[in-house]
Amino acid sequence: MLKQSDKNRVIFFDGYCNLCSFSIDFISAKNTESSFTFVPLKSKLALGLLTQNGYSVEKIKTLENVVYLRRGQLMVKSDAILAILFDLGGIYRLSYVLYLLPTFIRNEIYNFIAKKRYQWFGKRQTCKLPVSDQSQEE
């Protein structure tokens, strides 16, 4: 189980998606302060944490997008991506200007990429865990 301090910034991801795996590796490499914890969406730990934060079990089983738990607030899709980039700090904070686009437009772009991600980037046979020691699976 996660320590309370590890619950401040939890990224739930699709470990079977190559794009998601590359993204987690990128975040891990830039995560110099080890402020993020990574949890595969299809894990028992994700099920427990997400139900504690208001997601129903049925909804969790069908989740296929990135979910970001930041200090008790759940974000999904483009909001999650932009918040993660902002929390990386440095130049990535410039992503904040993308909040000027309406959420429905950002999420349409997100949905389009999400729909094509396996076709464009492939799918793994097994769930990939990040290289970081900040990854959790249960």
Fill in the keyword field for this structure.
Glutaredoxin, globular, 5 helices, alpha+beta, 138 residues, four-stranded mixed beta sheet
How is this structure best described in words?
It is a single chain. With 138 residues, the chain is α+β, with helices and mostly antiparallel strands. 42% of the residues lie in helices and 12% in strands. It is built from five helices and four strands, in the order E-H-E-H-H-E-E-H-H. A hairpin with a 2-residue loop joins strand 3 (67-70) and strand 4. Residues 131-138 have low confidence and may be disordered.
Topology (elements, then pairings):
Elements: E1 9-13, H1 18-30, E2 37-40, H2 44-52, H3 57-61, E3 67-70, E4 73-76, H4 77-88, H5 103-121
What's the Cα radius of gyration?
A: 14 Å
Number of domains: 1
* DSSP summary: helix tally: 5
Q: Name the average pLDDT.
A: 80
- In the CATH hierarchy, the architecture is 3-Layer(aba) Sandwich
Number of strands: 4
Low-confidence stretches: 131-138
What characterizes the major β-sheet? 4 strands, mixed
Helix/strand-derived class? alpha+beta
Q: How do the strands of the widest beta sheet line up side by side?
A: 2-1-3-4
CATH class division:
Alpha Beta
CATH topology: Glutaredoxin
Element pattern in H and E: EHEHHEEHH
